[in-house]
Specification:
Layout (H helix, E strand, L loop, with lengths): L20 E4 L4 E4 L2 E2 H7 L2 H10 L5 H13 L5 H8 L7 H15 L8 H25 L14 H10 L5 H13 L7 H10 L5 H12 L7 H12 L5 H10 L17 H17 L5 H15 L8 H11 L7 H22 L32
The chain binds acetyl coenzyme *A.
């Protein structure tokens, strides 16, 4: 094999051949299984989208109903998982709680029959069904409250919003939230999906696959950016402060959260749809105080950084929608995870269907033939920076 050029962050290096989703970062196109994201967002539901991503085609009415029914049936958590959650510190981040709970599910379903379609189907259903319940349960339990039980008469998004607050969600709010889940469901080989694929390639169980992806999504350069956007808008505080804020960040070579993307060099198509959803929501329940700051920020960044292809990404407007839905900021990334489970499972299924374990190489830069110094002769402390 010839030596390849090293590319930090594996930029532009294909990690797989996939038929799940497609991104054109120059023109701002995102497709799930060949269908444009705008059309899916307008016409589909999150569970139908998950079905499309995971099984490769749109379900018939009968298939969709059966899938929805199965997911609804498996929404409850085992009491042992709830008991485990009671021991989590209330100050812990919900992403850490979610990662622990996803991994713990594997303890209860330790069979690993990856070539059995019934096993694969059961794991898909269980993960899609229980992840939202885990997120909502942690939100209640960290305050010392019992988790709210899922309701069979509510759809996927409405049930999640209900479990968060024990209040019937408004139908428009539930639909907007469902579309948010659709928009976050899949996005080719990003960091968390790659993490899921690497874990999947060892033929471990799907719960370990999802747990590793959740841990990767948590970082501020990936899913965690939606939280950071709200903190940033709060820090900016007013429209007049936007320009000096941006200028200072550029001078200090600091990133502005919710902007820029490894693939998109134009405005992320998901940000466009999310902005529309935010406006629909504001029309109904009133404009968010941060929205005008966000609009000004987008304009100033386009002016200052547009030439570098820095535009709003998916995380820029999602936080404003979740804020208006009354969702606490530290649940924004877990909500991203609820949606992205669909994409991770699609990649898990694709990976195990044509598996070869990931084992890249490296370019060694360290020394050779070093002497082993006995402990008593080591005088100098290592520089561990
Ligand atoms: N603010 C200011 N400048 C930026 C930003 C930003 N948000 N993003 C990139 N740039 C600039 C860089 O300073 C760099 O400039 P230079 O060439 O003059 O040095 C150039 O654009 C390229 O930036 P890189 O960091 O090399 O781009 P990369 O593709 O590695 O990073 C990333 C992509 C991580 C998303 C980056 O844009 C970023 O950190 N954005 C802020 C965090 C964020 O919003 N993350 C969410 C991404 S979407 C998601 O994960 C779901």
């Amino acid at each position: 094999m010839t030596t390849c050029e090293y590319r930090p962050g594996l930029e532009g290096v294909p990690a797989t051949q996939s038929s799940i989703s497609y991104v054109d970062g120059q023109t701002g196109i995102l497709e799930y299984r060949g269908i444009g994201i705008e059309e899916i967002a307008q016409q589909s539901s999150f569970l139908e989208t998950a079905y499309l991503l995971i099984w490769g085609g749109l379900p018939t009415q009968q298939e969709l109903e059966a899938f929805e029914h199965e997911v609804q049936y498996h929404r409850r958590l085992k009491y042992r998982i709830r008991d485990m959650m009671k021991c989590f510190p209330e100050s812990g981040h919900p992403m850490d709680a979610l990662q622990a709970c996803a991994a713990a599910l594997g303890l209860f379903h330790s069979r690993r029959e990856l070539d059995d379609p019934t096993y694969v189907q059961a794991a898909v259903v269980r993960l899609l069904a229980k992840i939202p319940t885990m997120v909502a349960a942690f939100k209640m339990m960290r305050k010392g409250n019992d988790p709210v039980q899922p309701r069979d008469d509510l759809g996927y998004a409405a049930n999640f919003l209900y479990m968060l607050n024990e209040q019937n969600p408004d139908p428009l709010e539930a639909r907007i939230f469902d579309v948010c889940l659709i928009l976050h469901a899949e996005h080719t080989i990003n960091a968390s999906t790659f993490s899921a694929m690497v874990t999947a390639s060892t033929l471990t169980d799907p719960y370990a696959v999802i747990a590793s992806a959740v841990g990767t999504l948590a970082g501020p350069l990936h899913g965690g950016a939606n939280e950071a956007v709200i903190d940033m808008l709060q820090e900016i505080g007013s429209i007049e402060n936007v320009r000096p804020y941006v200028e200072a960040r550029i001078v200090n070579r600091e990133k502005i959260m919710g902007f820029g993307h490894r693939v998109y060099k134009v405005k992320d198509p998901r940000a466009r749809v999310l902005q529309g959803l935010a406006e629909q929501l504001f029309d109904k329940v009133g404009r968010d105080a941060y929205y005008d700051i966000a609009l000004e920020l987008e304009q100033v960044i386009e002016e200052k950084l547009g030439h570098k292809g820095i535009y709003p990404n998916v995380d820029f407007y999602s936080g404003l929608v979740y804020r208006k839905l009354g969702i606490p900021t530290d649940l924004f990334t877990p909500i991203f995870a609820i949606a992205r489970v669909a994409g991770w499972l699609a990649h898990w299924k694709e990976q195990i269907g044509k598996n070869r374990i990931f084992r890249p190489t490296q370019i060694y830069e360290g020394p050779h033939n070093q002497a082993y110094l006995p402990l008593e002769k080591r005088l100098q402390l290592w520089d561990k920076s």
